[in-house]
């Protein structure tokens, strides 16, 4: 009985406000109906499915928004779809002659209980999470677009929603919205997609670079060009101050990747080297031939010039190999 009295009082007050607006010749008020909404109780309230637009008087909306409309879905968590024509029919019936215009979606998806995140809210979450990750790519990187669901319903078990993504790469990049429950239990994972653009200055071969070819800084083997990094997988070659050679061939016009290059060895296969054996109180020196290339501090195989025995040592400088 108390609830009926409160409803009747609210309806009467709304009628007074609307009548006052109409008789005063006020302009039509405007309501925008949501594309997705949740109802907390047995009846849908106007404020649950619509938002005031423009100069809608706050006191009038506080009263009008409490107007009960049609019945919500019987089962908590169940969704129903209401087409625009039915929405308009219901609003006109329950609001009678209210001086209100309606902005209607093609349909309203209505659920009982829980809450709903709109397309705009989901997009904002994605942009806020992905933007700093994209900026960390360096170069001229930017988030071009994000494609997110029209809405996301979260039932009463959900305690929060966050955005998860793997490695941020140029091009199309998948990510997901994760709905968590008690104890960080994952209740839902909803896929989404972003488009990332990145331009960077990278080393590009100006002629074919064959395996074992040198690419020292003084050699004119590559130039720096601004390139779109979409579909470029892996780490780009950064020459720094060292000298390098190709581990595998690179075609003319291709970006040189880190895996394509390796440090120029101090000792090359076939070089004559001095092998130093250091033991307890013993130091021996002999001449040998390098059987493999050797980088600074790397292991190399050598063969004594007076025998066929092969030894494994550590490259110390351009002519010395240490054996222990």
Fill in the keyword field for this structure.
elongated, 5 helices, alpha+beta
Annotate the secondary structure layout.
Layout: H1 2-23, E1 29-33, E2 36-39, E3 43-45, H2 46-49, E4 50-53, H3 58-64, E5 68-71, E6 79-83, H4 84-95, E7 100-103, E8 107-112, E9 115-118, H5 119-135, E10 140-147, E11 151-154, E12 160-165, E13 171-180, E14 186-205, E15 222-228, E16 244-246, E17 261-263, E18 272-279, E19 282-290, E20 299-304, E21 310-315, E22 320-323
Parallel strand pairs: 1-7, 2-8, 18-22
Antiparallel strand pairs: 1-4, 3-5, 6-8, 9-11, 10-14, 12-13, 13-14, 14-15, 16-17, 18-19, 19-20, 20-21, 21-22
Brief overview:
The chain is α+β, with helices and mostly antiparallel strands. It is built from five helices and 22 strands. The strands form seven sheets. Strands 10, 12, 13, 14 and 15 form a five-stranded antiparallel sheet that branches.
Can you walk through the features of this model?
The protein is of the alpha+beta class and about 325 residues long. Helices cover about 20% and strands about 40% of the residues. It has 5 helices and 22 strands. It has helices at about 1-25, 45-50, 60-65, 85-95, 120-135; strands at about 30-35, 35-40, 45, 50-55, 70, 80-85, 100-105, 105-110, 115-120, 140-145, 150-155, 160-165, 170-180, 185-205, 220-230, 245, 260-265, 270-280, 280-290, 300-305, 310-315, 320-324. The strands form 7 sheets. Strands 10, 12, 13, 14 and 15 form a 5-stranded antiparallel beta sheet that branches. Strands 18-19-20-21-22 form a 5-stranded mixed barrel. The chain has a 3-stranded mixed beta sheet with strand order 4-1-7. β12 (about 160-165) and β13 (about 170-180) form a beta hairpin. The model is unreliable at about 1-15 and about 20-25 (pLDDT under 50).
């Amino acid at each position: 009985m108390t609830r009926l009295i409160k409803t009747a009082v609210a309806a009467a007050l709304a009628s007074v406000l609307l009548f006052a607006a109409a008789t005063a010749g006020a302009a039509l008020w405007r309501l925008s109906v949501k594309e997705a909404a949740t109802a907390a109780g047995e009846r849908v309230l106007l404020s649950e499915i619509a938002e005031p637009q423009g100069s809608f008087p706050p006191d009038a909306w506080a009263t009008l928004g409490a107007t009960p409309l049609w019945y919500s879905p019987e089962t908590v968590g169940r969704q129903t779809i209401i087409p625009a024509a039915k929405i308009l029919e219901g609003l006109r019936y329950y609001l009678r002659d209210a001086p209100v215009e309606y902005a209607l979606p093609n349909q309203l998806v209505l659920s009982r209980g829980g809450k709903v995140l709109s397309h705009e809210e989901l997009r904002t979450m994605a942009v806020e999470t992905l933007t700093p990750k994209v900026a960390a790519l360096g170069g001229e990187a930017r988030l071009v677009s994000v494609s997110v669901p029209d809405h996301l319903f979260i039932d009463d078990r959900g305690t929060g929603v966050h955005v998860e993504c793997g490695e941020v790469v140029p091009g199309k990049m998948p990510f997901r919205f994760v709905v968590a429950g008690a104890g960080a239990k994952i209740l839902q994972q909803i896929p989404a997609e972003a488009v990332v653009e990145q331009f960077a200055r990278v080393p590009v071969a100006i002629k074919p670079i064959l395996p074992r070819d040198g690419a020292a800084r003084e050699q004119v083997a590559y130039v720096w060009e601004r390139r779109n990094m979409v579909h470029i997988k892996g780490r780009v070659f950064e020459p720094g101050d060292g000298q390098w050679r190709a581990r595998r061939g690179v075609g003319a016009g291709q970006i040189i990747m880190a895996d394509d290059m390796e440090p120029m060895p101090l000792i090359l296969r076939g070089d004559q080297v001095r092998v130093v054996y250091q033991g307890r109180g013993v130091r021996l020196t002999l001449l040998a031939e390098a059987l493999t290339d050797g980088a600074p501090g790397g292991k190399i195989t050598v063969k004594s010039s007076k025998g066929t025995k092969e030894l494994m040592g550590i490259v110390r400088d351009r002519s010395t190999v240490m054996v222990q």
